[in-house]
Amino acid sequence: MTDLPRLLAAALTPPGPDAAAEAEALAAFRDARDSGALTAPTRRCDDWRREDEAPCDGTP
Questions:
Q1: Could you give phi then psi for residue 15, rounded to 5 degrees?
Q2: What is the pLDDT of residues 26-59, one digit of tens each?
Q3: φ, ψ at 14 (rounded to 5°)
Q4: Interacting residues of 54 by C-beta distance below 8 A, sequence separation 6+
Q5: Which residue intervals of 1-60 are DSSP H helices?
Q6: Rounded distance, CA 39 to CA 32, Å?
Q7: Is the pTM of the predicted complex or chain greater than 0.70?
């Protein structure tokens, strides 16, 4: 029973970040940004801000 606290701590500790996946996601974001894909206006249905914070004309 002496291993129980260690086993419980290991089970409750979230895994560390996947460095390769993080690098891939960052590269994809930079490619999208550099190609201009991120300049499109935000659609109202995609805008999660409160009504009083979001512009009504569809601009981000």
A1: -65, 155
A2: 999 999 999 988 887 777 777 777 777 756 555 5
A3: -70, 150
A4: 44, 47
A5: 4-12, 19-35
A6: 10
A7: no
> Would you say 59 and 41 are in contact if contact means Cβ atoms under 8 Å apart?
yes
Determine contact, residues 44/58, Cβ cutoff 8 Å: yes
Sign (positive or negative) of CA dihedral 43, 49, 55, 59:
negative
CA–CA distances in Å: residue 45 to residues 3, 4, 6, 53: 51, 48, 46, 14
pLDDT digits (tens, 9 = 90+) for 3-29: 999 999 989 998 888 999 999 999 999
Q: Are 54 and 47 in contact (CB under 8 A)?
A: yes
